[in-house]
User: Fold this.
Amino acid sequence: FGADLGAEKFLDIKCRLAGLAPDAVVVVATVRALKNHGGVAKADLNEENLEALEAGLPNLLQHVENITNVYNLPCVVAINAFPTDTKAELDLVEAKCRELGVNVALSEVWAKGGEGGLALADEVVALCESGDEAGRSVETFSFSYESDLSIAEKIEAIAKRVYRADGVVFEPAAQKEIAQLEALGFGDMPVCMAKTQYSFSDDATKLGAPRDFTVTVRQVKVSAGAGFIVALTGSIMTMPGLGKAPAAHKIDVLEDGTIVGLF
Assistant:
C-alpha cells in the first residue's frame, strides 16, 4: 500500500491523536512496482526494463516528497531487492534517489536475513540521531492539515498536498453527510481516506505520478469509537474481497505430519 495511504493515516491520524512524532521514515520501494508504474504489465515484470523503470520513478519520488516536504521528516528509501532484479536496475533507482539528495539503502533481508538489512539499519540510525542533510528531524514534523479546518477542507488538503489533485468533487450525498456530521460535533476529527492503493488518484488505472485530476468523494461517515471521519472515494471497498480460491485448497498434511502447499 502506498505511503499516500498508510503513512498519511499514521502521521495525520495516529500521531495527532497519540501525540507522537516519528524520528525517521522508511519508504519501501521495489523495482517491480516501479516498472509497473512505468507501464510494464505484471506478467513482464521479471524482465529487465530500464526505460520503464525510469518512467515509473516519479511515483517513488512523490512518496518521498510527501514525507520530506509535506510532513517535514527525514526519509530513507529502502529498495526491497527481488531475485529477478538486475544490478543495472538497482543501480538506476539508487542513482536517481541520490541525484535528488534522498538517502537510499538496498535491503536484502529476503536473501541474506539480518545481515542483508545492515545498510538500511545504519541509514535509519543516522537519521534518528541527527536528522537529514536538509535539517529535517523530529522537531520539524508537521501535519498535512490542521484540526480546526472543516471536514471538506481537510479532505481537500490531503487531495491537493498528498495526492497532487487539482481539487475535490463532493457528491450531493457526501455534502449532506458532511453537514450532518459537523452539526453533530464531529467536525474536529481527523480524516481517514478510503482510496485505491494503486494510484495517487482515485482511479486505479492512473499509475505513476498523475496530474490534472480531481478526487470524487461519494460518501462521508464517522467512526466515532476510532475517532476519525471516513471519506469514501471512487468505487473503493472498505473491506477488500479475497480471491475465489482460498490458499487452504493447496495446503495439506501428509501422514508423517509434513505440511505441504504453504509456498
Remarks:
- The chain has a mean pLDDT of 94.
- The longest helix spans residues 50-70.
